[in-house]
Amino acid sequence: MKNSLGNRIGVFDSGVGGLTVLRKLYRYLPQESILYFADTLRLPYGTRTKEEIILFVRQILDWMQSEGVKMVIMACNTSSALALETVQSEYDFPILGLIHPGAKGAVKAGKRVGVISTVATAKSNAYRDAIAEINPNTQVWQMGCPEFVPLIEQNRIYDPYTKKVAQQYLKPLIEANIDTLIYGCTHYPHLKGVLSEILPSSVRFIDPADYVVRAAEKELELMNLRNHGLLLPTRFCVSGNSDDFAITSKQWLGFTPHVEKIHLPSSKVIELHNNSTEIEINQHHLYAESLIA
């Protein structure tokens, strides 16, 4: 492996959601240097096709490889659900996703598990399948929540409309008498205050970020990649507007980050839409869609 002990861990998401994973890294692996990338030009990922997500992920990983990362954490459940298994063997550094670590945490917590996620993650049944592998007796209810990510990215967490939308999404899960709720999107822990007001107090929240960071720690130990040298400042990069990301992320980071705008390389593996690797960026609004199983 070309990577050295002091190289950064790459972390990526479509936007500010992955900051929930970054904060866990700061807490549990404070000696590690981080490269954080937000693909804000193409968010939300949750309305994309599997082919689009794989293309985006390969472009990000190609760039992170060129930056010399020693490990990558997909701080994005949609990418973890749709692309992880496809790309893991294509790169010479470990790539970790959120689904299996989160599923393990949920199975330990309860027997009636609700999953709130993007529509793409819900349709993939990734969490249901992962939970069934661990404990087939655990019941799972899934809910696609397409409006959450845009509302969070627009900093409308405490907007009355956001609570109204959350009540709509959570109603079937409450009726199913869930005892555990998985944040099936890294953006969603930002909504904990809102969700806690709606759900019964007995419901346990599972944040897959806690579990993927622990898995990363074990992987670093196993591969002897722990950083024992100089700690580098976190490098923040985006594909979209750097100022917007800096402003939005300040409230969760506690500081205003310096943010670089970068241009991703073209994918070397997959071509879409009649051999074109250019995908039209279609920012469209989706109304609430439920996926209950």
Automatic annotation (TrEMBL):
It is an enzyme of class 5 (isomerase). GO terms for biological process: cell wall organization; peptidoglycan biosynthetic process; regulation of cell shape. It catalyses: L-glutamate = D-glutamate. Coiled coil: none annotated. The keyword Zinc does not apply. Its EC number is 5.1.1.3. Pfam families: Asp_Glu_race. Keywords: Cell shape, Cell wall biogenesis/degradation, Isomerase, Peptidoglycan synthesis. Substrate binds at residues 13-14, 45-46, 77-78, 186-187. PROSITE patterns: ASP_GLU_RACEMASE_1, ASP_GLU_RACEMASE_2. The active site is at residues 76, 185. The keyword Cell wall biogenesis/degradation applies. Provides the (R)-glutamate required for cell wall biosynthesis. Belongs to the aspartate/glutamate racemases family. This is Glutamate racemase. It comes from Cyanobacterium aponinum (strain PCC 10605). The gene is murI.
